[in-house]
């Protein structure tokens, strides 16, 4: 009897445990917010519990015409201006290059960690091309970084290359051609990777993140220097044509701005009439919010700001200016007057009004930076403190990289009579992509690194043209000090790092007449620059000021070959480049099957001989 009773109790206990567990699971499931809908498109509200989606896009690169037949009676008939294929640009008929007959190219908008599959169809006659996904580290997929002759062969005319990678870096980014000058003619577009609301650090600062609230700015090349238009979303305002961002009074909007560059490499000033901009991100990375009347960024950079639609309901101009041209770019913030105002009495005063408003927030460094009303890059703080080991005084690898131009006679296509050098070498691209076809490169002919220099680069040769590679152990901490010794140009230089983002920990000045050994010594004594090892911003593009130096830190986590290069030069093979090989060859992911190949060819001896 007792045994039977004990058994019964055991069963009852088990049942109670089961019911208890079941109710706990049901409660957890009930309390966990799950996505309301299944979305067919990747351009969807992002949710942290969603599975990543596979997002397919097709970019057809081809020659096109602005204000051609596609535009019908535009601008007389405004509806014709918005037809498929109508590119307005500066309102003149001219040959341009486009992706999908759009300028800028289509906005690719996905959620963090989605898998992007982009078929790039090259329909440019006789012209090779690659696409770089600026802001994406490609840690798992270095073959998809889009650097010709380093990570892949240029995509040949009338062929298709499928880029496949994880959109692992959230934020406002940019895709663009990385060959020749195609990006000047129109092959670029925004790449927006959103985080789920619950993990987006800045989410409480805005109400709406509208997929249409993107401003892509670029110089347009038809004017002479000093007289070229700035396009905003592919339009130089004319007649009544200008992009409009529609807002509902009383709401706060996240607006994403991309500087897609141009031939003159001019930094842009952006401002919105009667509004302040609350800047919340640079190069896709969150910063401690800064209220500013004007924001200055350089080419390739991006910023996100919050616009509070609390002004007089009307159209307010967004102005894009530069010191290089008088022809400013314009767009408008257009208050939707048919929608009732959402302004609550307490919302009419911005909660950030108590915060100081900067006249200018700039990612560049200038004399203006000393003014109290100007905030420059070294004063901007990341929302996340610098992690270990980057906050330590000493890094595993420290590289001093001076760059300059020298007068030398060479075949190199630099500036007239001037040859660029970075780290004492003039970068030359190899004859095959070093990542996918490493064994086909003649090391003696091309490669220079700490173990080897081509024979022609004797100690007395003023210039050494070679594929300059620096090997960096995987997972090591790295500091790069870029030093601007260019005495021929009055401009700053803008550098972009592939494969990693970095913390811009320091900016120094007045290194013009200081030799490199003295610079190192000054740095050891802490006199070259002050380093911010706590809150320095995270970026992928940096301006090295005239006669100045910048220090960048990152942990080399992505195995691959990664380019660090000056992007102000309009040609990709300008010489101010250096290649980092991160990790050993065995650390590199295997070359994808049937990956396209290219290289030199010398005919067999019996051919016509
Ligand atoms: Cu690049």
TrEMBL record:
One GO biological process this protein is involved in is: iron ion transport
Which Gene Ontology terms of cellular component type are present?
A: plasma membrane
Cited CDD domains: CuRO_1_tcLCC2_insect_like (cd13858), CuRO_3_tcLLC2_insect_like (cd13905)
What Pfam families does the entry give?
Cu-oxidase, Cu-oxidase_2, Cu-oxidase_3
The transmembrane segments are: 12-32
Record GO terms (molecular function): copper ion binding; oxidoreductase activity
Does the entry feature the keyword Signal, yes or no? no
Q: Does the keyword Oxidoreductase apply?
A: yes
Sorted alphabetically, the keyword list is: Copper, Membrane, Metal-binding, Oxidoreductase, Transmembrane, Transmembrane helix
Which positions fall inside the Plastocyanin-like domain? 89-196, 230-326, 449-583
Q: Which domain of life does this protein belong to?
A: Eukaryota
Family as reported in the entry's similarity comment? Belongs to the multicopper oxidase family.
Q: What is this protein called?
A: Uncharacterized protein
């Amino acid at each position: 009897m007792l045994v039977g009773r004990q058994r019964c109790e055991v069963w009852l206990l088990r049942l109670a445990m089961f019911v208890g567990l079941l109710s706990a699971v049901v409660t957890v499931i009930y309390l966990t917010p799950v996505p309301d809908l299944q979305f067919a498109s990747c351009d969807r509200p992002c949710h942290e519990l969603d599975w990543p989606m596979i997002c397919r896009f097709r970019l057809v690169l081809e020659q096109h015409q602005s204000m051609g037949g596609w535009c019908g009676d535009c601008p007389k008939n405004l509806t014709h201006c918005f037809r498929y294929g109508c590119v307005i640009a500066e309102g003149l008929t001219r040959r341009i290059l486009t992706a999908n007959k759009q300028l800028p190219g289509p906005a690719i908008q996905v959620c963090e960690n989605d898998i992007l599959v982009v078929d790039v169809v090259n329909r440019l006659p006789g012209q090779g091309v690659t696409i770089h996904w600026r802001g994406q580290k490609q840690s798992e997929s270095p073959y998809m970084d889009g650097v010709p002759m380093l990570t892949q062969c240029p995509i040949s005319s009338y062929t298709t290359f499928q880029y496949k990678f994880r959109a692992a870096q959230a934020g406002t980014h940019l895709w663009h051609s990385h060959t020749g000058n195609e990006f000047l003619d129109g092959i670029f577009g925004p790449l927006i990777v959103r985080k789920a609301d619950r993990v987006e650090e800045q989410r409480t600062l805005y109400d709406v993140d509208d997929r249409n609230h993107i401003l892509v700015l670029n110089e347009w090349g038809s004017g002479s220097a000093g007289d070229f238009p700035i396009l905003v979303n592919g339009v130089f305002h004319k007649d009544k044509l200008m992009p409009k961002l529609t807002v509902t009074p009383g709401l706060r909007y996240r607006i994403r701005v991309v500087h897609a560059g141009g031939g003159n490499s001019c930094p842009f000033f952006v401002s919105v009439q009667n509004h302040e901009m609350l800047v919340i991100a640079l190069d896709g990375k969150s910063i401690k919010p800064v209220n500013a009347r004007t924001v200055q960024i350089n080419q390739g950079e991006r910023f996100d700001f919050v616009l509070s639609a609390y002004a007089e309901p009307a159209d307010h101009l967004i102005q894009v200016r530069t010191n290089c041209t008088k022809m400013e770019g314009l767009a408008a913030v257009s208050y939707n007057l048919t929608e009732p105002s959402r302004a609550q009495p307490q919302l009419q005063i911005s909660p950030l009004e108590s915060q100081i408003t900067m006249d200018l927030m700039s990612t560049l460094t200038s004399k203006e930076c000393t003014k109290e009303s100007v905030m420059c890059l070294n004063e901007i703080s990341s929302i996340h403190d610098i992690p270990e080991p980057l906050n330590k005084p000493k890094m595993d690898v420290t590289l001093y990289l001076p760059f300059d131009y020298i007068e030398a006679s060479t075949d190199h296509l630099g500036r007239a009579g001037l040859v660029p050098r970075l780290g004492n070498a003039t970068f030359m691209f190899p004859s095959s992509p070093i990542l996918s076809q490493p064994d086909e490169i003649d090391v003696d002919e091309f490669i220079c690194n700490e173990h080897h220099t081509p024979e022609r680069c004797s100690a007395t040769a003023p210039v050494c043209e070679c594929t300059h590679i620096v090997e960096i152990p995987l997972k090591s901490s790295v500091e790069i000090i870029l030093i601007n010794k260019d005495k021929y140009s009055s401009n700053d230089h803008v550098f972009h790092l592939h494969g990693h983002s970095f913390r811009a920990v320091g900016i120094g000045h007045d290194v013009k007449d200081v030799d490199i050994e003295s610079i190192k010594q000054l740095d050891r004594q802490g006199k070259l620059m002050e380093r911010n090892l706590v809150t320095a911003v995270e970026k992928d593009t940096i301006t090295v000021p005239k006669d100045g130096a910048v220090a960048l830190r990152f942990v080399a986590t992505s195995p691959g070959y990664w380019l660090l290069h000056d992007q102000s030069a309009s040609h990709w093979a300008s010489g101010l480049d250096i290649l980092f090989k991160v990790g050993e060859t065995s650390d590199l992911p295997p070359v994808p099957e049937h990956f396209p190949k290219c290289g030199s060819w010398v005919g067999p001896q019996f051919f016509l001989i």
